[in-house]
Amino acid sequence: MKGQEQERSRLARDLHDGVGGLLSGVKLRLSSMKGNFYLPEESAISLQGIIGQLDNSIQELRRVSHNMMPEALIKYGLKEALENYTDYIQSSGALQIQLQLYGLEHRLNQDTEIILYRIVQELLTNVIKHAQATNVLLQFIRNNDRFTLTVEDNGKGFDKDPEGAKNGAGLSNINARVAYLNGNMDINTAPGKGCSITIEGAIRQNTPGGS
Ligand SMILES: Nc1ncnc2c1ncn2[C@@H]1O[C@H](COP(=O)(O)OP(=O)(O)O)[C@@H](O)[C@H]1O
Ligand SMILES: [Mg+2]
Q1: Nearest ligand to the C-alpha of residue 135?
Q2: What are the residue boundaries of the Histidine kinase domain, all occurrences included (predicted)?
């Protein structure tokens, strides 16, 4: 898991700084060219369209690289990354997120921060994809070397299969991450009743020489 996250981090930076930087340069040069010589109206419109497409490509690239590894997570830690992420989701307007973070004044060990972030990412993606909810509570409480994470939505809920056999890749991945944190996950849901997921587990301590 660790090597994979490092690789993601490197790829995200290469995409953002490398490809993103190149595209932004192209956009700048095209934009400045635009006013420099006479173009027939049709070509001017087409050039404007190309610049617009470049803009979209740059935005999409930022989104992808950010999903791979948010810069704020590495630089400023879980608290800031979760605040940014939920702001971003809320800015689309469809979902209200109530964010309650306790005990995150100090940074956790980096592996743990990344794992917890990935878990929240999947849980909120599920709410967006499946729940048709209007409100979500995202609560994270750190208490010494333990944490409790709750994601609760007011959406349509689902029929939970007792063995978890019908779980998709998302919930299975979460289970694997939770196991890594010596924790457990409790899913409380039923059709029409929203969905509340609580995960609790251990905060890994910084290991000497680890990052
Ligand atoms: N918050 C939620 N609200 C409603 N249904 C959900 C929610 N979270 C998960 N589900 C249901 O559980 C299934 C499994 O989720 P998951 O393992 O993440 O797989 P995927 O998202 O790829 O379908 C989803 O397909 C969906 O039917
Ligand atoms: Mg999913």
Answers
A1: 1
A2: 10-205
The per-residue pLDDT of the chain, averaged, comes to 91
Question: What's the CA angle centered on 5, arms 4 and 8, to 5 degrees?
Answer: 90
Report CA torsion sign: 70, 75, 76, 79.
Answer: positive
Using the mean position of ligand 2's atoms as its centre, give its distance from the Cα of residue 209 in Å. Answer: 34
* Ligand 1 centroid from CA 130, angstroms: 6
CA of 168 to the centre of ligand 2 (A): 7
pLDDT digits (tens, 9 = 90+) for 15-29: 989 999 999 999 999
3-state secondary structure of 157: coil
Note the pLDDT tens digit of each residue in 72-82: 999 999 999 99
* pLDDT tens string 163-196: 665 678 899 999 999 999 999 999 999 999 999 9
Q: Which atom of ligand 1 is nearest to the CA of 195?
A: 1
Which of left, alpha, beta for 140 (phi over 0: left; psi -120 to 50: alpha)?
beta
